Amino acid sequence: MLRKVALNTGIFFLYLVSLLPFWFLYGVADMIFLVLYYLVRYRRGVVATNLKNAFPDRGEAERRKIERRYYRYLADLMVETIKMITVSEKSLRKRMKPTNPELVAHYFGQNRSIIAAAGHYCNWEMAALAFGLLTNEKRIIVYKPQTNEVFNDMFNRVRARFGAILVAMRQTLRTMIALKNQLTFSVLVSDQTPNYHEINYFTNFLNQPTAVFLGIEKLAKLIDAAVIFYRIDRVKRGYYTYTLVPLIEQPKQTAEYEITEAHVRYLEKLIQEKPQYWLWSHRRWKYKPEDFNR
């Protein structure tokens, strides 16, 4: 009981913080960076190891520069995510702009549903919120539930503020079958780590064997949906664009793993171009192929 009260108090505090203007929050972010990077040294070892394994051909000085830039952006991402609790539609439209929204009408005009792969790259939470403004058809965000139910419910309420439908990963197949006769636009984060018993496929991602979900490929073939990548680019502090990048037009005509490799390769290329915007503090490579061979 006391724990729940404490969590709800924390959520109310985040709500109050979200009312502060962006310029003030970025001042807070500058301080958060100093605390995370120099004092707490939050997952510095994890980030350094991930960067070294992903970019063995880059020198230590360059990797250290990426690391510092990553932590600076991580601090911005934290305050921007809090701001999403109360950000207005007008402000959101100004700060997260689509570059080619006509692609949605293009596929829907062909009576085709859309499945988008996204990554933990740039501000994926702000992009998820803006996703709700993209079309009037059913917008589905597939999410991996957090262990903390209170915060899980809060984040889902925030993500659904502008009309998106939140679907837990385990309910995705059932939901897609129920909506197969309707036009839907679904977004799935493609770079999450599967649980041990869910791992069926490894690919080479950022220079190392990586377990990936096959859900996007399976769903696209099931409902014959066009597969795109939901690309986010940072223009400047607090301002982004997102681009809908076509990957696969005819999913039922693809070979096994072709769709999976398409979105993994696109995300990999994006990270290599501007690596500071990916979630390097995530323990992405917990499982190795040899663990399953044994």
From TrEMBL:
GO terms for cellular component: plasma membrane. It is an enzyme of class 2 (transferase). InterPro entries: LipA_acyltrans. The chain crosses the membrane at residues 12-40. One of its GO terms (biological process) is glycolipid biosynthetic process. It comes from Mucilaginibacter phyllosphaerae. GO terms for molecular function: Kdo2-lipid IVA acyltransferase activity. Its main location: membrane. It is found in: Cell inner membrane. CDD domains: LPLAT_LABLAT-like. Its EC number is 2.3.1.241. The keyword Plastid does not apply. This is KDO2-lipid IV(A) lauroyltransferase. Keywords: Acyltransferase, Cell inner membrane, Cell membrane, Membrane, Transferase, Transmembrane, Transmembrane helix.
